[in-house]
Give the backbone structure.
Amino acid sequence: MSGERDVVIVFDCGSSKLRIAALDEACRIVAQESAPNSPKPQPGGEPTWRIWDLEEIWGKLCALTRRLMKSIEGRFNPIATTIATWGADGVPIKRDGTTTYYAISWMCPRTSRIAEEISKKMDPWEIFRITGYQIIVFNTLHRLIWLRRHAPSALEEAHTWLMMPGYFSYKLTGALHIDPTSGSTMMAMDLGKRDWSEEMLALAGLDPSFFPEWREPGEVLGEVTEEAARQTGLPRGLPVVVGGHDTQFAILAANPAADQAALSSGTWEILALRLNRYDPSREAYELGVVIEADVEPGFWNPQFLMPASLVLEWVRRLMYREEVENVYEVMVGEAERVPAGAGGLILLPSFMPDTGPTKAYGIPGVILGLTPFVERGHIYRAALEGLSYQLRLAIEGLEKAFGVKLSGVKVVGGGSKNRLWNKIRADVTGRLIVTSRIREATVAGAALTAFKGAGRFRSFKEALASMEAGLESHAPGESSGKYDELYKVYLELYPVLAGALKRVKGGRR
């Protein structure tokens, strides 16, 4: 269409927010619409059980897309669409696309006993060696085992199983598929082969024939059907490009150099490598590393998942609730006036103790050094410093486990906007912190993938080379020496507090 710029439409579906975004070839968001998302109690289930209402989510996505399409009408020309969603969750469906059971959320605790039992059936190290995954309650394979035991008809009546990107792609195209980035979150793949592990699937009484065909991100899956066009407002016949797990698109868009890690920083932080080898070392397993399939075949993403801005939001909620305007500027300004070391405070940011590089200790969040003279700026600075100690430990863990030497970290996501945090990260880690103009890394990575599927790029390498990242570097400064000493204290606290916490828990019996 004359005078209209080409864009791709990205369905960015997260556990807490649904977003539809239109991006141009420079990965700039030209329009977007969003709505909240959350799991629901399962009708007739236990009080703690949580499921996704797929009809509600699809309805929201359709409404958002119609609004977005109306807003870009006459200005932009959609040439492709793709879907990125959260990982681990899926649903069994019949041949006609109806589901045979609810889509169980990763937030549902019903598989906790299965997660405990599975280590008795199979060596957890062997599971990691095959799948790249640790035994975590929400792993998809645990859901499949649960269905086999407690709702066997759901699997017996199902034609196949779709992960979330596959389900919503099916709603657009009528085509069935699974992509390796989503599959790698299931604890069911032979990750080195980028294919199913028959040994793992057998634990749920399944085999590869139950699942749809593998399709790679960047391939054209199909076209928007007449019915999907009516529901969404997307043009009928618009190419639908295979998408996948949102984390992998963020890592792709970060585009770290060989001696850099990628850090996708938001409510959670994911520190990851893009390695051209599958290397599930014993050391990586013992450190709690998870390995997932990269968007591009021939690459893998070893990673740590760690609490991040959720810690800072806790500080804001408790101590800055009266600040209505420019609250984040106020927080950063107050923390900047506090010297390195936060006035003797140290905050351990392990608010989710079963994740991250300190997982082995099981320690929840801790603040040490409180006095009557401590102000909220001290606590916010201590939180930024504690998160940076956590980051340094994760960097050192990846270096040790995979035999790499990292000179820097490429940071994307909302957490990359905080200038003070970036400075502290550099000082604490002793490494170059590089930020990019690409803040919304998931949608940027998905957009590059969609443009590749639309034929604009021949390869992911070419797509990444086209992206003007607008890099900014933050080098270690004069506070590095002080932080080296405080980092030693941070490391000493975990084993000491682990012993104390064990005694406290013992005293509650």
In short: Residues 480-507 form the longest helix (28 residues). The chain has 18 helices and 22 strands.
